[in-house]
Amino acid sequence: MGTMTSIVFLFVCWTIKDNLKIPDTRGKYVFITGCDSGFGNLLAQRLHKKGFSVIAACLTEKGSDELKACTSQNLKTVVLNVTNAESIDNAVTYVAEETGSKGLYGLVNNAGRATPIGPTDWLDMEDFHKVLNVNLIGLIEVTIKFLPLLKKGSGRIVNVASVMGRLAFGGGGYCLSKCGVESFSDSLRRDMQHFGVKVSIIEPGFFKTGVTNLEIIEKDLHRLWNRLTPEIRYAYGDKYFDNYLKVQRLSMKTLCSSDISKVTNCMEHALTARYPRTRYGAGWDAKFFWLPLSYAPAVVADVMLKIMLPQPNGIKNSVAKNQVDV
Ligand SMILES: NC(=O)c1ccc[n+]([C@@H]2O[C@H](COP(=O)([O-])OP(=O)(O)OC[C@H]3O[C@@H](n4cnc5c(N)ncnc54)[C@H](OP(=O)(O)O)[C@@H]3O)[C@@H](O)[C@H]2O)c1
Ligand SMILES: *[C@@H]1O[C@H](CO)[C@@H](O)[C@H](O)[C@H]1NC(C)=O
Domain residue spans in the chain? Predict the structure, then answer.
C-alpha cells in the first residue's frame, strides 16, 4: 500500500512538473533546419502560431517561398544547405543580426535524408558519405556554429534522431548517423548544462514524409541493384530484390503514420516546457515497439527483424560452391 501510494505520488509530481510551461513565447527566436517539408515545415507554422519568432531554414529557394507565402512577418526564412560550410556561416550571420542582444532561444536540428539505404554490401563509400554528411556532420557543424548565440539566449537545442538510431537495421549511413546524433547530443547536454543551454533528443517512429517516400527509396534501390556485380546478385537471388521491394512497400504502408503532429508536439514540448525532457519517443510504434525492442537482448531483436525482413536466397549455394572450389 505504502509503495503504491509513493508510486502514484511520484507520478503525479512528475506529471505536474512535465506540464509546467515557460511564461512567454513572444520575442523568443527559434531557428529550424529542413523546413521545406515534413516535420520542420509543420513545426515552423505551429511555433509561428504560438507567438515565437521563427527563422525557418529551407534547403531550396522554392521551399522557402512556399512557406513564406502562408505565414506573416514573424516567420522569416533563409536558404540553408547543412553540408555547405559557407551556407551555414551565412545563416549564422543572418540569425545574429535578427536576434541582436537577445541571442537565440531555440535551435531545432531537423534536416535529414534517408537514401541511399539498403543491404551493406550493395553500398560504396559515397553512399555512406551522402547521408552522414547531412544527418550527422551537418548537424554537428550547425550546432557548433550556433552555440555562441544559444549561450547568449540561454537557449535550447532539439536534435532529431530516430528509433533507427537505437535499433540498427537497413544498411547505409542512416542508422549510423542517427546513432551518432544520440551520442553527440548526450555529450553536448552534459557539456552545456553549465552554460544554461538545454539539449533534447527526438526519436520518431515511422511517419509519412519525404524521408519515407516510397518512390524515392525504390528508385534508389533500383540504382543499387542494377550496379551490383553478377556474383552479389546471384548470392542474393533474383527473388530477393522483388521481395525486398514488396516488404518495403507493405511496411511503409502499414507502419507509417500520417499524423506528423505527434512529432512536432514533442518538439514543441522541448521548446515550451519549463523542464524539457532529455528524450522523446514520438509515435505509438516508437513507444511500444521499436524503443522497447532496442532494450531487449540482441538475440530477441535479431529474431524479430529476421522475421520481418526478406531473406537472401542464394547465400547457401554460393558458400557451398566456394567450398567445393577449395
Ligand atoms: N519520417 C520519419 O518516419 C522519420 C523518422 C525518424 C526520424 N526522422 C527524421 O526527421 C527529420 C525530418 O524529416 P521528415 O520526416 O520531416 O522528412 P522530409 O520531409 O524529407 O524533411 C527533411 C528536410 O530536410 C531537408 N534537407 C535534406 N538535405 C538537406 C541539406 N543538405 N541541408 C538542409 N536541409 C536538407 C529536406 O529538403 P528537401 O525536401 O528539399 O530534400 C527536407 O525539407 C529528419 O532528420 C529525419 O531523418 C523522420
Ligand atoms: C548542398 O551542398 C553540397 C556540398 O556543397 C552539394 O553537393 C549539394 O548539391 C547541395 N545541395 C543542394 C540541394 O543545393
Answer: 24-208+258-307
Q: Which residue in 139, 149, 152, 118 sits closest to 227, CA to CA? A: 118
Over the stretch 9-20, which tens digit does the pLDDT of each residue have?
999 999 999 999
Residue 87 alpha carbon, nearest atom of ligand 1:
32
pLDDT the model gives residue 170: 86
Q: Which three cell numbers stand for residue 219?
A: 528508385
Q: Which CATH superfamily is domain 24-208+258-307 in?
A: NAD(P)-binding Rossmann-like Domain (3.40.50.720)
Report pTM: 0.95
Q: Which of 29, 105, 174, 236 is catalytic?
A: 174
Which residue lies with its CA nearest to atom 7 of ligand 1? Answer: 162
Burial category of 95 from C-beta neighbours within 10 Å (exposed 0-12, middle 13-18, buried 19 and up): buried
Q: Which of 35, 39, 45 to mutate to test the pocket of ligand 1 (most atoms within 8 A of CB)?
A: 39
Torsion of CA 54, 59, 63, 64, to 10 degrees: 40
Asked whether residue 323 carries a pLDDT value surpassing 90, the answer given is: no
User: Is 174 an annotated catalytic residue?
Assistant: yes
Peptide bond into 119 cis (omega under 30): no
User: What pLDDT score does 164 carry?
Assistant: 97
pLDDT at 325 over 50: no
Q: What element of type H or E holds 32?
A: strand 29-32
